[in-house]
Amino acid sequence: MNTTNPIITLRGGGTALIVELAHPRPRIIHWGADLGDLGASDLDALVTSADPSATHNSTDEPRDLTILPTEADAWSGTPAIEGVVRDGSPYARFVLASHRFDEAAGELDVTLRDERNGLVATVRYRLDRFGVLDVGTTVANESDGEMVYDVGAVTALLPLPDRATEYLDFTGKWSRERSPQRGAIDLGTRLRESRRGRSSLDSPYLLIAGTHGFDFRNGEVWAVHAGWSGNQRYLVEQLPEGAGVFRSILGAGELLLPGEVGLRPGECYQAPEVSFIWSNAGLDGLSGALHRKLRARDTHPRSPRPLTLNTWEAVYFDHDLATLERLVDAASRVGVERIVLDDGWFAGRRNDTNGLGDWIVDTEVWPDGLWPLVDAVREKGMQFGLWFEPEMVNLGSRLAQEHPDWILAPSDGVGAAIRHQYVLNLAHPDAWEHILGRIDALVAEYGIDYIKWDHNRELHEAALRNDRDRAGVHEQTLALYRMLDELKRRHPALEIESCASGGGRVDLGILARTDRVWASDCNDPVERQNIQRWTAQLIPLELIGSHVGAEESHTTHRVTALSFRLATALFGHAGIEADLTRLSREELDTVTAFAALYKELRPLLHSGDLVRGDLADQESVLTGVVSTDRSEAVFSWARLGTSAPAQSGRVRLPGLDPDRGYRIRVRDEIGRTSLHENPPAWLVQAAGDGFSVSGRVAGGAGLPLPTLDAQQAILIHLTSH
Ligand code: DGJ
């Protein structure tokens, strides 16, 4: 061996991470494909091949990329740890102190000490059986004196090879979340930040690097996600000198403001867990690993995801018992299983200018409390859910009047309102107790099954009034997590949805204590096809709330066919956001048939592998779910707009078993789909008794999928025979 350093290999799900425990700082010598059982000579060669060259006009010795790169390694890129000894030096030299390797658990902890300042950093790598590598870093102040260490940033970083030349990440705005953007990884830093106090509508979400032209089904890809709901940053960075023998680095972490986290002796900062995923099977390979990991969690929702009706777009703030009872009745007749009463039920909340913070039922609108509605819902065998926005406050509320010191804002003024509201400092122990107490009491009183937990503004100047106006997003985020955890502890059956102006808080931090997300306030299926397709890049369909909206979208005012709206809502945790009492008899029959179809297909949709088609025509979207044993699949073939080619031609249905025969049926429960052509022969059969085809033909050669009129979709269902 060229090295006497221990070499640690973590393997799982076809991925490997290999670390050389070199002194003074360990280095990663491989992250990517599992290279198999490496013998001593292979490991030897791997170590030697991890030594970079010493370039001209650079350090005399070659520059390595360590697991904790800082200036101490002559690293000129983004450091893994930034911070400063208060009134002192920003320089820390972490040196390998010890490690712990648990092969069975796939875990390696590496502890490094900075003797100069008495700091200790521990990096934990955990590679699970799905190939997802979680990296957690802690920094502790173990000095004995008075020294305070102000943490600037802790960023989990992993190397990318030369062939990772393109990136894909996401941005967005209200009603258009997770909009993809793509480009070349150039020299320099592509830095994406959220300074909005939440993961945000424009969250990078998943920063993906890949080989040239990677797409859903092809290419080698490396991705990173920060499991955190506060300020955060993502980066892919390439320096001229590279990163050791690698070309660039990929990373993510929490974004801290100056002074936000100061460690006194004995204190420790735990950075949010950052997940890294590698796949050589394109974007579907990444989502497959992530979905399998999430589904294996103890806390993953396992009961059938109830068809939900949310009252928001049906009545908005107009809470009238008779109207709501009619809606509940209509919902029950079509097959809804859960009713969620949205915003507007609490004291003073007649519009969005007042009431937030006063979590008591409005006695004018609800003289008998929520009981008449809750009883109506329960009598029909449905679950009852209620909307809250616990982190927010309107200045006119009783709570804000009585406790101005609980507002998360600078002491000398609250700054700009967003949607007329401000943020409550949940890190204030009294505010935390009060809000938790109100929610807890209501959950207990009405036996609430489900909370839609909303968050409708960004955080600006999130100053802790009770602590010298220190920056407070970090503590606010932790306080929120504690509250969610405590509610779940007190009410183990309670489910919680994460909503934030639509899909503004979708991340694995919030999803560790919630049961689904509201993907977007936009229910227009043209927009939703993309929003849901990309939301599912990280999380499986059962965690994505996807509701059927009104014929005319409330956000885009586009008018779309019911069948297209239903086909779109099917691929998620389905529900209804429309006023069912306005639907015709025929439309209600269709929604009823859809409800039955959703219930029939949800075991498949909520456990199978997501597959997405790579299509030349950008107006077509092929989304499928194939059961894990590949005996069944359902595909949605959707057309967003028109395109020049008259025919779609043969399109391969991904994910099928080539050695199985399948019977394909068109599932027309969603109602009529309008075609832009006479249907191809196979589709005529599939719309009748069924069309038989092998996975080899449907997945290998493909089937001529019909050219649909714009904003239409068909559903095809394959069962093996
Ligand atoms: C924003 C959410 O995204 C909507 O679904 C709705 O709950 C409103 N807030 C209520 O104010």
Give a written overview of the molecule.
The protein is of the alpha+beta class and 721 residues long. It has three domains: 7-295, Distorted Sandwich (Beta-galactosidase, Chain A, domain 5); 308-600, Aldolase class I (TIM Barrel); 611-720, Golgi alpha-mannosidase II (Immunoglobulin-like), CATH 2.60.40. 20% of the residues lie in helices and 30% in strands. It is built from 13 helices and 39 strands. Strands 5, 6, 7, 8, 10, 11, 13, 14, 18 and 19 form a ten-stranded antiparallel β-sheet that branches. The chain has an eight-stranded parallel barrel with strand order 20-21-22-25-28-29-30-31. A hairpin with a 5-residue loop joins strand 33 (620-626) and strand 34 (632-639). Helix 7 (429-446) runs parallel beside helix 8. The longest helix is centred in the last third of the chain and has 21 residues, at 585-605. It is globular, with a radius of gyration of 27 Å. The model has no long low-confidence stretch (mean pLDDT 97). It binds (2R,3S,4R,5S)-2-(hydroxymethyl)piperidine-3,4,5-triol (DGJ). The site of (2R,3S,4R,5S)-2-(hydroxymethyl)piperidine-3,4,5-triol (DGJ) has 11 residues, from loops.
